[in-house]
Write a structure and sequence with these properties.
Blueprint (H helix, E strand, L loop, with lengths): L2 H36 L3 H11 L3 H18 L1 H10 L1 H20 L6 H31 L19 H25 L2 H32 L2 H5 L5 H18 L3 H23 L2 E3 L9 E2 L7 H28 L13
Antiparallel strand pairs: 1-2
Helix pairs in contact: 1-2, 1-3, 1-6, 1-7, 1-11, 1-12, 3-4, 5-6, 6-7, 7-8, 7-11, 8-10, 10-11
């Protein structure tokens, strides 16, 4: 297998890892965001948290693997990304740390103030990454100041431009909708009814913000210029899948609604990577200084070893995670054993 083929394979694999992360971590971000609004008392909040208890840490492995893949396959992308986006990524990391601590520590004491602190830690630890990942992906395709030496030359506030914030709000609401639909599948009785009501309400801003982001993308980036007037089935089905969610919710088809939110998230992520290819990080200073899979990649030898290892272990990891979802497929009720 030649170098160029492996570079393309690893770009696709990174796209797959981010897609899997956004689908899986997206719903537990959404559950965390909805926690203060779903649970009216401690028992209900503990029930809500237990819907994602067996999954949240496994879902985060997708992010760790994506970061590791970028580091090993495209070290120049990793270096520019983690230096230029340092403060944003640090803020996201702190939020995720507090979120993980909250899952582990909230049940250690019965003090209401103690549990309230950790409940809000889950909320902010879910909302901040959900927002910042949208900001990050928008900056990937819009472009950031990068010089001819692949160095980021901007500041933190360069990342918080109106376009990136629009994408951040869209990702925040989409993940919240994804989480609400997930809760309709995992809860019972009044919690399930409350989740259904919230899903229908969140669908409105999620859809509007997603459409605003799509129009803004046409104006602010070259994505549609690269994909053409007819961008193809994937971007179109992403929109159609999101529009179908409210119809399915009104019919009580929560399972299919969850499939549609997952498809919308997946196809939106794939569209971004399609618009990027073969670039991985666009330079707003000079398009010729953009990082691509060709100038940012590791050597042929490194990519060859990585490809062999990935071919062996990725299917094993996927089978294990699929098995864990099957084992914990049952709904969670107030009478279930509560761990958090």
């Amino acid at each position: 297998m030649d170098l160029q083929t492996m570079q393309i394979i690893w770009f696709i694999l990174v796209a797959v890892l981010f897609t899997g992360f956004f689908i899986l971590e997206g719903f537990d971000f959404g559950v965390g965001i909805l926690l203060p609004f779903m649970g009216k008392d401690d028992l209900e909040r503990r029930t809500v948290i237990n819907t994602i208890g067996p999954f949240w840490d496994g879902n985060e492995v997708w992010l760790i693997t994506a970061g590791g893949a970028i580091f090993a396959a495209f070290p120049h992308w990793y270096a520019t990304l983690f230096s230029g986006f340092y403060l944003a990524l640090l803020l996201m990391l702190v939020a995720l740390i507090f979120r993980g601590l909250a899952f582990e520590y909230r049940s250690k004491r019965d003090n209401p103030a103690w549990r309230s602190f950790w409940d809000w830690s889950i909320f902010f630890g879910s909302a901040i990454p959900a927002l910042l990942w949208g900001v990050a992906m928008a900056n990937f395709i819009r472009g950031v100041p990068i010089d001819e030496s692949m160095n980021y030359t901007g500041g933190f506030f360069n990342l918080l431009n109106p376009y990136a914030l629009a994408c951040g709000l869209a990702s925040l609401t989409i993940f919240t909708l994804h989480g609400a639909v997930f809760l309709t599948l995992k809860t019972t009785d009044e919690l399930q009814e409350r989740a259904m009501g919230l899903a229908k309400k969140v669908w409105i801003p999620a859809t509007l913000l997603s459409l605003v982001f799509a129009v803004y993308t046409f104006v602010e980036t070259d994505l549609f210029a690269r994909l053409g007037v007819n961008p193809g089935a994937i971007p179109i089905f992403s929109v159609l899948a999101l529009l179908s969610v409210i119809v399915l919710l009104n019919k009580g088809a929560s399972g299919w609604a969850f499939v549609m939110t997952a498809i919308s998230i997946a196809f939106s992520t794939i569209t971004i990577f399609m618009g990027l290819f073969p670039r991985v990080l666009v330079s707003s200073t000079n398009p010729d200084w953009s990082l691509t899979i060709y100038n940012a990649s590791s050597s042929e030898y490194t990519l060859g070893i990585m490809t062999t290892v990935a071919a062996i272990f990725v299917p094993i990891v996927l089978l294990y995670q699929g098995w864990s979802y099957w084992v914990f497929r049952q709904r969670v009720s107030k009478n279930s054993k509560l761990e958090y």
